[in-house]
């Protein structure tokens, strides 16, 4: 096995109408990571984002499916590198933190999280509902997965090759970062949080986030992934609540029968028995799905080990798929 002396690095910048900032972002990452290939994925921009990125020497590609999740899926499918650094094209994340994030991945971490919330996020971000949403999502996920992740929804991350090639991107929009974090916690991946200096968008740059709409999507993603990754607590709790209601109703009808010798509320008794049966079925469903989920985790570990083994035994470090890092590939 050969030691990787010059690992290949890919900087991934998903963009939609970022002509105000994309030029500076590309230049900053070029200075921070001079040997990296910088990819700008243009997600149907109607401004000069692609043109400016090309002029700055980035590799520009088009992604016609709208949504950040779709862009990241395309990036992960089509780009090969030893280390991936993902950021936004809005100049809110400091490029000078990237070398330290890359170093942590090379140490063996699967994902390095650029933690905004431990530094300047709550001072720089002028949208109070976003601040509330970050706290809500963070508290919910950490409680359910018994974790201590500070920034669940940050867009500044670094990944290993194995993480990128084994991570199934299911979300289409901005909820993809939440999905990444839950996926990592569920599969017990090696995470490292690195505080970064977040800054708000510069004047003239407009956020694409819909506070209410994207917030609903994020909460829906959490609900869906809890149902998939924690089926026993999800279905078991639901079944227990329904079953207890049914037992209480049965007890009420039974007490009435003991006092009068008659079942006066016969429909209530039928409904109560049905609730008990539904509760038991939900609990059994949770047990069965929990077994399936644990088997899926085993399969994921085996697949991840295969990718890691194959990568270690390739004769050379992974090159980017583009022969030249500055070539435009539209």
UniProtKB/TrEMBL annotation:
GO MF annotation: an example: transferase activity
Pfam families listed in its UniProt record: Glycos_transf_2 (PF00535)
Transmembrane portions of the chain: 232-254, 266-289
Keyword vocabulary terms for this entry: Membrane, Transferase, Transmembrane, Transmembrane helix
Stretches assigned to the Glycosyltransferase 2-like domain: 11-164
InterPro entries registered for this protein in UniProt: Glyco_trans_2-like, Glycosyltransferase_2, Nucleotide-diphossugar_trans
Entry superkingdom: Bacteria
PANTHER family the UniProt entry points to: RFBJ PROTEIN, UNDECAPRENYL-PHOSPHATE 4-DEOXY-4-FORMAMIDO-L-ARABINOSE TRANSFERASE-RELATED
Family: Belongs to the glycosyltransferase 2 family.
Name this protein carries in UniProt: Glycosyltransferase
